[in-house]
Amino acid sequence: TADLWSIYSKPVPANGRELWTLFLQSCCITAVIGGLFYNWMFVSLQYSWHLSIAMTISFSLLLLLTLFLVHPARCVFSMIMPMLGTKQGRKLLLSTCTMIVVVNITPNIISNIKTILQVIKCICKNSSESLLNSTALLGTASWEFGDAIQENVNSINFGSPMNGHFQFSLLKNSSFPYQQMQLAGEKIGKDFMAVEVLVKDSVRVGNKLVAGFSMLYLCFESTWYLKNYLTNLRFDNFYITRKLELLAVDRKAAHLLVGPSKNLIRPRGLKLSREEVMLCLVQAMLLTVALMLMLVVVAMDHFAFSVADTAVRKAAQFSVVPVTLSIKYKVSAGAKIGILPFLSKLLQIPSEELPLQDFERSYHYYLTFSSAHCSISPPTPPNPSVLLAVGLLFCILYTTVFLQTYAHRLCRKIAGSFFESWEEKRALYLYKKLSRRHKEE
């Protein structure tokens, strides 16, 4: 492994065997990265398969030539891998996680909301039709009640004949309310479809922009680090490296590296400085905010399913409601009716008692709120695999928060292995700096 890395990090291969080894290494790396790139383009960013293949082939050929021919580019590319464990890598994972949530959870929420609307539409349709059909019952009740009144009027036998029946108007066009509800349901469905398409398109475009920017920034950050490493001896130069230890031993100054020092860190150690710990905690807090937002969307998915499932079950139980219409008409017993009562008293004509009949009847009807003819799609339960994928991604994200310091140290080690002569100069600069500080103390 050390020999393969030595060949890979050399500026120029020493012989033909190293040249072929470097070419095979470049081919293997290109094949792996090309496969990951295609999966990222097609699955995560959801580009079409032919565009993903074309971009993957072009990217792979360019990467192969770059790795095989350009030594600094190999160093930059090698540092990109550890950089994935830093802030920009977390942005890529967050964009992937957001895409998984939007593509899988948002349609599920909208589907369950559509189920709830279908239940409401079914209840409104059946209840309106049932209410319209109940007008026939009201017509029958009014007619029988009118007969009773007519009999009482006829028993009086005074004046011109009267029709005691009620004129009850029935709504003949029972399809009109249903048509209005159908139009309203279609409009609501179109609005939901438009919102779903808008959310998907917006998140998809935003995810592509974030992913593209993050990849470009990864390349820029690695290039910027290498540029500063090669031009500034003070840049990221506070590690007790192997070359610094050998230099201190050769010059009999090993005491410079002994004892606790807040300014020196061993790159292979697990110790984190206070600044590194605070940075990790801040990044973890920001990541927790993103996790809370994801959990809100997941909770909305479970809530929408619970409401839809309850609505479907309750609608089936709340199918028929009995309704009773009671009419009670009572005439006071012993009522006296005569011709012009004041004349009857004046002329002393006796009034006759008329037998008037009471009316009391009950009419029963059943209001229907749902039926088996309603087309209601079953509620869609949340997909547990999506929640598992999101959980695993956030576990990786939290891991990268605390591994970003070691990833940064690995970047420095990679740069030192590609440019060993410059690493010796940096070790010498740090040794002189420690020597001056020791003499001043």
UniProtKB/TrEMBL annotation:
What's any one GO cellular component for it? Answer: membrane
- Its transmembrane ranges are 19-41, 47-71, 92-110, 277-300, 385-403
* Any one Pfam family match given in the protein's UniProt record, by short name: DC_STAMP
Q: Which UniProt keywords apply?
A: Membrane, Transmembrane, Transmembrane helix
**UniProt cross-references to InterPro entries, sorted A to Z:** CSR-E3_Ligase_Protein, DC_STAMP-like
Cell location: Membrane
Reply yes or no: does the keyword Transmembrane helix apply.
yes
Q: How does it sit in the membrane?
A: Multi-pass membrane protein
Residue span(s) of domain Dendritic cell-specific transmembrane protein-like = 235-431
Cross-referenced PANTHER family: DENDRITIC CELL-SPECIFIC TRANSMEMBRANE PROTEIN (PTHR21041), OSTEOCLAST STIMULATORY TRANSMEMBRANE PROTEIN (PTHR21041:SF3)
What's the protein name? OCSTP protein
Look up and give the organism this protein is from. Pampusana beccarii (Western bronze ground-dove)
Quick one: which gene encodes this? Answer: Ocstamp
